[in-house]
Automatic annotation (TrEMBL):
It holds the Pfam family HTH_26. It comes from Virgibacillus pantothenticus. GO terms for molecular function: DNA binding. Residues 8-61 form the HTH cro/C1-type domain. PROSITE patterns: HTH_CROC1. This is XRE family transcriptional regulator. InterPro entries: Cro/C1-type_HTH, Lambda_DNA-bd_dom_sf.
Amino acid sequence: MPFSYKPLWRLLLEHDLNKTQLREELGLATATMAKMGKNEYVSMEVIDKICNHFNVQPNEIIEWVNSDE
């Protein structure tokens, strides 16, 4: 998939949170966190929850990666 959640993982570090804490605070499924860990698709609802939680725009938690390289 041409998207990466690296910006989200950096954001967690900045807020001194880990993936488990994020999952628990937002009520996300462990499968959802696993998908993000593998840079797989998650719903826009999940993206919305994360953006609302941190008060950020989607481009601050996801980045496009050129799959042609």
